[in-house]
Amino acid sequence: MRRILLAFTFVVVALSAFADMFDRPAEVRLVVDSASAFTPKQLDALTAKLDSFEQATTVQIQIFTTTDLHGYDVVDFAQRLGEGWGVGQADKNNGIVIVYKPKTLFEDGEVTIQTGYGIESLIPDAVCKQIIDNEMIPCFKKGHIYMGIDRAVDVCISLTGGEYTAEKYMADIDRLYTIAVYIIIGLVAFPIVVVVIFLIVFLFCCRGYTASSNSSSGSSSGSSGSSSSRSSGSYRTTTHHHSSSHRSYGGGHFGGGGARGRW
Amino acid sequence: MKKKGCLIAVVAVVLIGIFSIVVWYIKTGNKIVRLDEGVAESWAQVENVYQRRADLIPNLVATVKGYAEHEKTALTDVVEARAKASSVNVNPEKLDSRSLQQFEEAQGNLSSALSRLLVVVERYPDLKANQNFSELQAQLEGTENRISVERRKFNEVAREYNTYIRQFPASIVANSRGFEKKAYFEAQAGSEKAPEVQF
């Protein structure tokens, strides 16, 4: 009896110690490389890919590498991580979690892909299993960790990318609009600049070389130039702000769909 | 005159008191209803994932039959356990420990019949190489994992409900309106781990 009680308290203590691990972090890091499986360059490339995919589709793909699963089964770990962090958007549950644990001398390598409720129909369990068996494990066995994960990510992207075409379309429209604004500003600004230059030349030639007229015309051309550059700059910042305002875990839910692999 | 003023004041205080108690009663009752709905919703999810497993079985049995006809007992065990498990219906309004236990027992029988079948199947390499079968395996494994996730989520929601209705003073409202404690799923052996289906 005492032993059971002891074991129980141990479990409770252990669970409470690791409970915060699955709490939602303040900022989004779609690639968390605790096992240092990637080089800094690979980490950046993968993060950039996942970030831009999220921007286009709102689908969040979370990569998590770790050497220690804290006693959880890898599938359980990934599900709790996805649910706790809220990977994916709350209204679509469109998150994917990939957890990778490297092979060591004493333990098998383990990997899992867990799909949010909204992804289950796009990437069924059997497909997850195929991605793991055909794309990931062959690479992992050769030691190409990045390649294996990158390929799996590519498949996930191609399978989920079509889902939110409406939003993607709107994002594209948004981008087109920004480009159009740039062009219009350019078209408007170009004649103004030409006219101003013409005026300066005209003033220089006809009005003589008085210092006062020279400085005033110079400042006017400078102000018009800076205003056009500021407006184009503000467009860039607004679009940037637009994308950065989505930078949080959306609160997606996970029901345990997905598959696992071992090597 | 002074007496009358006092009386009015007392009546006002009493009325305000009664009014706030009524408001509190209604609010607490509504919260309990909301939590109760949450439990029912969670239960529906649990039934869903068990149903998902039941739906996979006919296909699984058909596939295995094609390769391993001699394993009649293992196959019929699964089919019978599935039929039994499907026949157990739990009233979501009344999730007491008895009905949950019956449900558990039937589903547990199906689980063990399934794992027996999958052990037997080990002897048939042709079957294991079958594409359809490996897909079913992956689906079955994912479904077992879904089951353990939804059980856990159910327990969390039920715990929240139970804690609320048993705490004073909400317990008064719960008792008067006949809200009862919900049962939990028992922790399965190694419930922290997803039941691993070994193939």
Structure explained in plain terms:
The complex is a heterodimer of chains A (263) and B (199). Mean pLDDT of chain A is 78; it is low at 211-244. In chain A, helix 2 links the parallel strand 1 (31-33) and strand 2 (60-65). Chain A folds into 2 domains: 24-164 and 248-262, Diaminopimelate Epimerase, Chain A, domain 1; 166-244. The two termini of chain A are 39 Å apart. With 263 residues, chain A is an alpha/beta fold. In chain A, helix 2 (40-57) runs parallel beside helix 5 (145-160) and helix 4 runs antiparallel to helix 5. In chain A, strands 1-2-3-4-5 form a 5-stranded mixed beta sheet. Chain A has 7 helices and 5 strands, in the order H-E-H-E-H-E-E-H-H-H-H-E. Chain B is mostly helical. Chain B has a single domain (2-176), classed as de novo design (two linked rop proteins). Chain B is 78% helix and 0% strand. In chain B, helix 1 (2-67) runs antiparallel to helix 5 (131-166) and helix 2 runs antiparallel to helix 3. The radius of gyration of chain B is 26 Å and the shape is rod-shaped. Chain B starts with a helix and ends in a 23-residue tail after the last helix. Mean pLDDT of chain B is 86; it is low at 189-199. Chain A binds chain B through residues 71-73, 75-76, 79, 124-126, 128-130, 254-260, and chain B through 45, 49, 134-139, 141-143, 145-150, 192-194, 196.
